[in-house]
Structure formats: C-alpha cells, structure tokens
Design goal:
GO molecular function: mannitol 2-dehydrogenase (NADP+) activity; oxidoreductase activity, acting on NAD(P)H, oxygen as acceptor
CATH architecture: 3-Layer(aba) Sandwich
Helix content: 25-40%
Shape: globular
Strand content: 5-15%
Radius of gyration: 21 Å
Bound molecules: nicotinamide-adenine-dinucleotide
Order of helices and strands: HEEEHEHEHEHEHEHHHE
Pfam family, one: adh_short_C2
Number of strands: 9
Protein name: (Perigord truffle) hypothetical protein
Keywords: NADP, Oxidoreductase
Family: Belongs to the short-chain dehydrogenases/reductases (SDR) family.
CATH class: Alpha Beta
Structural class: alpha/beta
Length: 344
C-alpha cells in the first residue's frame, strides 16, 4: 500500500496534477534510446524505478506475443548443464512458459512428457518439438522421446494415472518435474466467487503438490536423485498493482514455500526442489489480460527496472540450470526472473 502510494506520488510529480491517465508506451517495438521523461510527458519503461533522471536506457524490442520459435541448439556447454539421459515431466507444457521450458529441457538433452488439461495442444506441441529437433540435428544418433498426456493436475486420480502412464512410456524413469500448469484471475477480494477461488488454488497449489508427491514416490522408490522446479510467480513475494488478485498472489506464495518445505523433507532422498518466480512475461495468459486492459502494459513496464516484460525464452537458462546437476547444491531456493521488479 505504502509502495503504491509512493509510486503514485512520484508519477503525479512527473506528470503534473492534471495528467491522471497513464498513456501507452511508444518505445516497445523498436530498439531505441528513450529518455526517462519526454517533453510530451509520456511515461517511459522503467522510469518510476530510476532515481537519476539523467540516465537513459536502451529499450529492447518487444513483440506482442510470446515467440515459441524453437531456439537453435548450441552443443558446447558445461557438462553439468547437460540433461542427456534424463526424463523431464512438464505440467502445463502445451503452451506458454511450460512449452518453452519443455523446449529448453529437450534442447539440453532430456526426453520429455507434457502433462496438460489441453491434451490436443500437448500432442501438437510434442510433435512440433520433435520435428524441430530432427531438422536441427539430422545426424543425431537418436531423437528424443516426447510424449503428451491429457491430465488435470488438480485431480489426485488424474495425476496418479498420468504419472503411471508416463512411467510406462519412459522406461520407468522420471528425473525432473517442472510444474507450470497454473492460471490467474482478477476479482476484487470482497467479490471473489468462492468456487473460482477453490478452482484457482486447486490448480496452482494442489496441482503443484499432487504432481510433486506422485513423482517423489517414484524417485524415492527408484533411489535416484531428482530435481523439481515449481513455477511460482513474483506475485508470491510482492503485491501486483493495480489489478486485484489476492488469491493468486497467495497461491504463488504457497508454491514458493511448498518448494522450500519439500526441499527439506526430501533432501535425504536426493530430491532437490526449487522455485522459479517469473515476473511479467508475454504469454497467452498475460496477453488476454493486456488485451482487456491496454493501459496496464504501460503501468507494468514502468515498474520493471529492465524496462521490458520478459519473454518465455528468458526462463530457458533458469529451468535448465535448476533441473540439471549444475545446481546440485541448490535446493529450497527461489530464483526470480523478473527484470528486477522485486528488488526495488
Ligand atoms: N505469464 C506470466 O506473466 C507469468 C508470470 C508469473 C508466473 N506465471 C506462472 O507460470 C505458469 C504458466 O503460465 P503461462 O503464462 O504459460 O500460462 P498459459 O495459460 O499460457 O499456460 C498454462 C498451461 O497450463 C495448462 N493448465 C491449466 N490448468 C490445468 C490443469 N488443471 N491441469 C493441467 N494443465 C492445466 C493450460 O492448458 C495451459 O497449457 C502459471 O503457473 C503462471 O501462474 C506466469
């Protein structure tokens, strides 16, 4: 509350008292140097978070939607980052962040299983990823196995049968779990429909927990180390403004602390559990919100020190790092990928 009030005071001071509506940014499609405050009084990306007005920033170009274009594989890297021989399960991998993270895991050597409520989308994504791998690696000794599974992560029976199906199709092996299935909704707290709230927590919190517990049972039984990466959100640490989304924020705080708690509980079994907390990323989820509220984007971007929303590709390195042996001594951590939003 204090933060919002202080930001609004700063915004008013910059704009003058009569300029109450925040206009859309103009510097989002071309790479250009933009001044903090222009003569036309327009708000610039990151301006509220800078204290020295003489500093200008190079604004990165930004598309309207997430690019899911496969990224070329670079073969030379630290061995500990390799996921060769590992099987990764990604919930919510049919699209958005989950899809791009699946791609990152496959590019790094893993086989993958996509679990999604949208089974058709999952199958399409699995096919696209495999075709891309083949075209990029025509001489590869083997192509990755990428399977698709229709599943509702909020349902214990659905999760149980899906994990069993994945184990059958992947030689009884799961080494990595990434939980990206989740969603957000905006209602004023006093008007939030209770059934919607239960649905939200059912997917975001129960869904993360149920998948983790089911995969942990397998890892413990198999007596092999494993890595879990929960996709939380910066909303689990800060309160987004101006959109009201208290239950979502609380659900993501729960996801973050679930990662820490399970990290401690399962450390003795060699299972690491970490959280990635993305900031504002351009995906179908946020695009829908921004389409409904065009002024929001200017407001959001003005609060991000890097001066741009994240692209799904910005999560690729983070997820491979936490999934792989490169992060062997890291567990219970929260890695924020938010362009600096939460450090101010
Ligand atoms: N996009 C952002 O700016 C952003 C920021 C922070 C955190 N996140 C989090 O990242 C995750 C992915 O977000 P996204 O932007 O890629 O969303 P998205 O809507 O593009 O993708 C979510 C995927 O989850 C699937 N899904 C939804 N409910 C499911 C269920 N019950 N069972 C199985 N699958 C289900 C959907 O079918 C979809 O494929 C979410 O947990 C979200 O809260 C997103």
């Amino acid at each position: 509350m204090f933060r919002l009030a202080s930001l609004l005071r700063r915004a008013r001071a910059l704009q003058g008292p009569s300029n109450a509506i925040i206009p859309r940014p103009t510097a989002r499609s071309v790479s250009t140097t933009c001044p903090l405050r222009s003569d036309d009084g327009e708000i610039r990306p990151g301006q509220f978070v800078r204290t020295d007005p003489s500093i200008t920033v190079k604004c990165p170009s930004m598309g309207d939607t997430a690019s899911s274009k496969p990224v070329r594989r670079h073969k030379r890297t630290l061995k500990s980052f390799s996921l060769e021989g590992k099987v990764a399960v990604v919930t919510g991998g049919a699209r958005g962040l989950g899809y791009v993270m699946t791609q990152a895991l496959v590019e790094s050597g893993a086989d993958a299983a996509i679990m999604d409520l949208n089974g058709e989308g999952a199958a399409k994504s699995a096919k696209t990823l495999l075709e891309h791998f083949k075209s990029e690696n025509p001489d590869a000794e083997r192509s990755p196995t990428i399977t698709a599974h229709t599943s509702d992560v909020s349902s214990p029976t659905s999760v149980r049968s899906t994990i069993s199906e994945i184990l059958t199709q992947h030689n009884s092996q799961i080494d990595v779990l990434v939980t990206s299935a989740g969603f957000t909704e905006n209602f004023k707290a006093e008007e939030y429909p209770h059934d919607r709230m239960q649905k939200l927590w059912g997917v975001n919190v129960d869904g993360t927990y149920l998948c983790a517990a089911e995969v942990a049972k397998h890892m413990i039984e198999r007596k092999r180390p494993g890595s879990m990466v929960f996709i939380g959100s910066m909303s689990g640490s800060i309160v987004n403004v101006p959109q009201p989304q208290a239950p979502y924020n609380a659900s993501k705080a729960a996801v973050r602390h679930l990662a820490s708690s399970l990290a401690v509980e399962w450390a003795a079994h060699g299972i690491r559990v970490n959280c990635i907390s993305p900031g504002y990323m351009l995906t179908d989820l946020t695009k829908k919100i921004l389409d409904d509220n065009p002024d929001l984007k200017a407001k959001w971007v003005s609060l991000i020190p890097q001066g741009r929303m994240g692209n799904p590709e910005d999560l690729m390195g983070a997820v491979v790092f936490l999934a792989s042996e490169a992060s062997n001594h890291i567990t219970g951590a929260d890695l924020r990928v938010d362009g600096g939003y939460t450090v101010i």
